[in-house]
Structure formats: structure tokens, C-alpha cells
Prior knowledge:
By secondary structure, the chain is of the alpha/beta class. The chain has nine helices and eight strands. β3 and β4 form a beta hairpin.
Amino acid sequence: MSTVPVIAIDGPSGSGKGTLARLLAVHLGWNLLDSGALYRLLALAGSRVGADPHDEAAHAALAGTMNIRFSGDASGEEQIWLGSVEVSREIRTERAGEGASRVAAMPSVRAALMERQRRFAQEPGLVADGRDMGTVVFPDARLKVFLTASAAERAKRRYKQLKDKGFDVSLAALSQELAERDQRDANRAVSPLKPAVDAELIDNTGMSIEQVVQAVLDLAKTRKLC
Ligand code: DC
């Protein structure tokens, strides 16, 4: 396994881990892996080629071959490409999240994406955001954080995030979709969403993002990561 230091941030949808991971990566000057984006891209790649949404072999093959690119640094507006098409916005819809959660439950898809994810571990370090970063993909991560927040707060944050991006969403529908997605992510047979045994649990309900970033930086300092 690589000696590049990794900070793994895992947790359910809307826990704020994406924002936290991005701010940490900027602060530390490290690379960023948004692993959820890979599952979202795969679901989209599948629908582009007309794959049956339940066809595991087709999605596992695509996981190894899909041509994706992340551009822009973590501090600015990030662009995500699938082939020659810019899909940064399209992969953020709840529909794409739903497709991602479905393909993420397929064991051979997870196996096919493993190496792709590990290749993000480059000097000087990596902040990796997902569901199984600390448990499966980077078991040797120097710091593992499991971030949670109450279901009501997570739904509200997601609602605001999507509204700010100009999406027309309803809070009630979003709460329902988040609950279903959490249920599937936590109960699937492979790499279910759960904290690593050596993870630091942070419930950030009622905390500001600055407070959460500071709490994780304090943990990083005690481990001599910064
Ligand atoms: O973090 P997100 O909402 O972009 O993730 C989209 C879906 O992908 C989510 O329902 C769970 C799945 N996922 C996963 O199974 N493992 C990861 N490491 C990241 C995301």
C-alpha cells in the first residue's frame, strides 16, 4: 500500500463530508477524491450506452473503461467530464444519486473502481470522501473521520445545496429519497456504510462548517499530518 498520507472522510448523504473534504484539501494543499462522483459518473455512463440499470457485468466493464476527467482545483469551481461532455451539473441530480446508489451495490463494480480510487493517492497527500474510504479503499488512512448529522439536518442541507444550484426540488421528496438511499447504502452486502473501527465519529448537527474543519484539523495535527 502507498505511503502517501490519506485522510478518509465517510458518512451518509448530506452529512457535509463533501464540503469538509474539499475545504481540508484546499487548506492542506492535498489532492481530493470525491468517490461518490465516480459512482454517479458510472450510472450516467451506463445510461448513455443504454445499459440495463441492473446489468452488473455491463457496469463493471464500464467502470474500468469509462473516460473521466476532473479539472480545476478544489478551491474553484470543479469540472467533471465524461468523455468529451462536461457533466458536473448532471451528476449532481437526485436521479444520478439514485443511479449511483444502485450501481454502488454491485460487488464487481466496487472491485473495478478500487484501483481507480487508489490512484488518487498522490503526494503530498489525499483527502478521500465517500462511504468506504476508511473501511475498504484506504484501510491504512492516517486519519479516518465518520461524519454524521441528524436526518432532518441532512435533508435541509441537501435541499439548500440543490436550490442554490438552481434545481427545483421539494424538501419532503428529498427527505424520503435520502432515507431510502441511506437504507440501501447501509444494508448492502458489499462495503456497507459503517464507521471503520478506528474512525473518529463526529456528529456535526448544529456545528458550522468552520467548526467541523477545525475539529478535523486538530485531529490531523495530533497525528502530525499538518
Ligand atoms: O456521496 P454521493 O451522494 O455523491 O454518493 C452517491 C452514491 O454513491 C451514494 O448513494 C452511495 C454511493 N457511494 C458508495 O457506495 N461508495 C462510495 N465510496 C461513495 C459513494
